[in-house]
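call fold(seq) -> tokens
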Amino acid sequence: MASELPPTSGASRADSLSEATRRRLQQCFEQGSMRMAQENYDYAAEMFTTCVLGDPGNVAYVQSFLGNLKKKYNNNKRGSALATIQGARHLAGMKKAARQKDWMGVIRAGLEMLKLNPWHVPTLASLADACRELGQQDARLAYLKMAQEARPNDPAVNKMCALALAELKQYDQAIACWHLVERAKPGDEEAAKAIAQLTIEKTIHSGGYSDPSRAGKKVVSETPAARPEEPQPSPATPEAALLAEIRRNPKNFPKYLELTELYIANHRFDAAIQLMQKAVQASDNDPDVLERLMDVELRSLRHRAAELEKKAAGGADPALQKEAEEAQKAVLAKEIELFQKRVERFPNNATFHYELGLRYKQAGNLNEAIAEFQKARHEPRHRGACLVELGECFQQIKQYRLAMGHYAEAIKELADREGELRKLALYRAGRLALGLRDLPAAEEYLTALAGTDFAYKDVPQLLEKLAELQHEKSSSDGDEGSSPN
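ret:
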């Protein structure tokens, strides 16, 4: 799985440390481990901090530092409630140190920020950058893995991981991370190009070919006896090499995948689909290979839809516009089919239920969407988003009280770090309350939203409407109070 970043061979600073320093750091590490086992997490954090600062490239120190903090905060994915306020000076310290290229200063301030919130992605990214500058690749990937844990579907985080892994020639893991980027941003050209390039580089690297600029030519060692006029073997392209590997071993499925990526990079989607159909047959309908085939079919449909959308952008040709709309529907239908297969195979995977729910909702299958969101909401990472989606689904089927209840629950659940989603929940709740003439609730939600972002959507107009309704109600109540008994 992409989030399982592999260890690398970055050298630890321990090689240059004195024997006395190594012993002192090891003693701190043992003390920290003992205190963590005793659930004295704050003391353990100080011990592990000393270890990391003494040897920032020691991945065991970094992992223990982060693991201790995860236990301290009961793996709540947000750390201390006051992290934003208390961590401001540490964030400022990191920025200042980075400007001065003081990489140990970045690490020192970053560790203090992580003590408040070990899932703070900007800090984890800064620490990873500092480790890269110091040549400490093991530690770099440890911080990036933590960032992936915090935001597993964030395309920016997965891009950082992909770039780091590519530098280390961990091609399969890098490609997997780019696929996560592609899943979050369908049709992303950077991801498609990166996958294609990495696939070529992997083929060249594993096949003993020369550098990518000379792809397809074997590296020929020159000897004094070699003469320029001697005939050389005909060059083999990466495609030919992969086809030869597949013919030699029809069950070598990684080679099918590599060749498929080469075809896709050249927009040869029909060839890619045919190749994966052969892979399915060779695998005796293995579910993983079948899913790969469906993924290739989906990418083909997305490519066609994107091309048609470009052509229909002007809107001058109604027939072309309709064709583009039908292509988008085909993409959605294939996505639903793919996630249906995934939830069948992995019924306890909340992410797959959530993604299927989103597609059902987009297709207008609201009852099915509700069922999927209800299955996914028990996962803390998706709970807030699921509650908002459930509110919208119930609102669309005119179950307004159920909708309002889910919006209210979402507002309580969502933290400041999910600000945009919380604003959406406040907006939906306020607007619905206004429509239901529940003026106290409308005032509570809309004023809370206005206090955070007054310019959000049509909040100013909604507040004006609220004031009008409150005035009408006040006038009506006054008339009733003055009327004779």
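Residues 174 and 336 are 26 Å apart (CA to CA).
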